[in-house]
Design brief:
The protein is built from 20 helices and eight strands. With 443 residues, the protein is of the alpha/beta class. The protein folds into three domains: 83 residues, Four Helix Bundle (Hemerythrin (Met), subunit A) (Up-down Bundle), CATH 1.20.120; 196 residues, Rossmann fold; 126 residues, Signal recognition particle, SRP54 subunit, M-domain (434 Repressor (Amino-terminal Domain)). It has an eight-stranded mixed beta sheet, sandwiched between helices.
């Protein structure tokens, strides 16, 4: 989402290339470009100006070490200042109370209902709580059906009251129901409007007064840019929410809302959401986002995602097979499935330092592994277990059965052998830095 901003910031830092030290003259030109890049990314003008003024003050006060170039020093200052601007550190969701009540607010179309489902899944899996979803949007029937569908998908009960058009009553009754059924977290999805209006504000305020939530989250569509920040301010003035959620970060957004929203409303950005999958929700970490904006990647988040999918017992089992050279296509397919669970492939790759820029114009489809899965699925159990028996005749049959070409099957066989050799070397401690097998995602 920050590709254009990242490119412009990198170009602005190049102004200092070749300079021996940071001076008021050379830093002024760089900061002018940085301010322009932030405004182009839809960052609030006042926020952008205040930010660059602060960076200038810090930069001119720095003593640049001989081993550090001025451009590198300014990059570090900008990175730290960006993180501070976006909140400094991650802010956890408050789940106090019996039950804890989380109230979801926002305009229609901002992604409130989808986020409610994602949050329920997050709290259930990461916090180990029993969650009840409440369908409080009585004006849009599709919202109730959507929440029911999401609840079924993630294994969370959805409380509804057919025929009741009073969202305050529904929320109050849901909390009573939650106490009876021993649910310890209640997430109330509320109605939105196409624009901020008095009736909407009165209703959401009445729900908040009735249920006394431990957490009120304002959901905003990141694709609306600076309008998202303005809407958040209007809501906060009336509702005094506890945190902001930015949705649709995978869309055509310039990212300005993520940078300036904390400064404008003085409330933390708690979650960021992208895609429709129920696990596509991340706690917002300002430092990591600053790294990504500056093209430094986000290795910590990548490792966390990997840890969620790869368990230690499976890793030990796999290592034994690798050392004995028994790694087969069943294991290969299992590894692919685990990587897919980690999220969008391009998003994962962009978390590696420098990869975001390299992949800017590269299309990595979500079904990039589909040809590989089709080929493996066309193998017999014996062939998957013992790849060495796959001769030319078997390869021809596998190609026909999978609808792929003979060349693709041959390429996969070579990739598999390269992967097996590499993984055996890693497992045996003979290789420090494994190289990802080339062409695995080639179509």
């Amino acid at each position: 989402m920050f590709e254009n901003l990242t490119d412009k910031l990198e170009r602005s830092f190049k102004i200092l290339k070749g300079e021996g030290r940071i001076t008021e003259i050379n830093v002024a030109e760089t900061l002018k470009e940085i301010r322009r890049a932030l405004i182009d990314a839809d960052v609030n003008y006042k926020v952008a100006k205040s930010f660059t003024d602060e960076v200038k003050q810090k930069a001119l006060g720095q003593h640049v070490l001989t081993a550090v170039k001025p451009g590198q020093m300014l990059t570090k200052i900008v990175r730290d200042s960006l993180a501070e601007l976006m909140g400094g550190t991650a802010t956890d969701i408050s789940l106090n109370g019996t039950p804890a009540v989380v109230l979801i607010a926002g305009l229609q179309g901002s992604g409130k209902t989808t986020f409610s489902g994602k949050l329920a899944s997050f709290i259930k899996s990461k916090k180990g709580r029993q969650v009840l979803l409440v369908a409080g949007d009585v004006y849009r029937p599709a919202a109730i059906d959507q929440l029911k569908m999401l609840g079924t998908q993630i294994g969370v009960e959805v409380y509804t009251e057919e025929g009741n058009c009073n969202p305050v009553e529904i929320a109050e009754n849901a909390i009573k129901y939650a106490r009876q059924k021993s649910y310890n977290v209640v997430i109330v999805d509320t109605a939105g409007r196409l624009a901020v209006d008095e009736a909407m504000m009165q209703e959401i305020a009445a729900i908040k007064a009735a249920v006394k939530p431990s957490e009120t989250l304002f959901v905003v569509d990141a694709m609306t840019g600076q309008d998202a920040v303005n809407t958040a301010k209007e809501f906060n003035d009336r509702l005094n929410f506890d945190g902001v959620v930015l949705t649709k970060l995978d869309g055509d957004t310039r990212g300005g809302a993520a940078i300036s929203i904390r400064s404008v409303v003085d409330k933390p950005l708690k979650f960021i959401s992208s895609g429709e999958k129920m696990d596509a929700l991340q706690v917002f970490h300002p430092e990591r986002m600053a790294d990504r904006i500056l093209g430094m990647g986000d290795v910590v988040s990548l490792v966390e995602r990997a840890q969620e999918q790869f368990d230690e017992e499976e890793a030990r089992r796999l290592k034994k097979k690798l050392v004995k050279n028994q790694f087969n296509f069943n294991d290969f397919l299992a590894q692919i499935q685990q990587v897919k669970k980690m999220g969008n492939l391009k998003d994962l790759a962009s978390m590696l330092p420098g990869m975001g820029k390299m992949l800017k114009d590269v299309d990595i489809p979500d079904d990039a592994f589909k040809p590989t899965e089709a080929i493996i699925s066309s193998m017999t159990p014996a062939e998957r277990e013992h790849p060495e028996i796959i001769n030319t005749k078997r390869r021809e049959r596998i190609a026909k059965g999978s609808g792929r070409t003979m060349a693709e099957v041959n390429r996969l066989m070579k990739q598999f052998e390269d992967t097996r050799k590499m993984m055996k070397a890693v497992a045996g401690g003979n290789l420090k830095m494994p190289k990802f097998p080339g062409g695995m995602m080639r179509r």
